[in-house]
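Mods, move this if it's the wrong board.
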Amino acid sequence: MCNDNVIRRFAGVFILLSVALGFLVSPNFFYFTAFVGFNLLQSSFTNFCPLEKILGRFGLFGCRASGASAR
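Not the wrong board. Structure tokens:
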């Protein structure tokens, strides 16, 4: 499990970056903003977060993959 602040930081950076790219490069980047928002919404209902699994696989920020034992 990851610290919730780590997930919020990544989501905030992704959203700000995709909004900036949407205005500066192509409006198609707004689809990425919607994708991040959708993932945040669904994770609030299901407690499943794809970013948490990805960070756990890479061992970043104290996250660990589901089912991994604490060391």
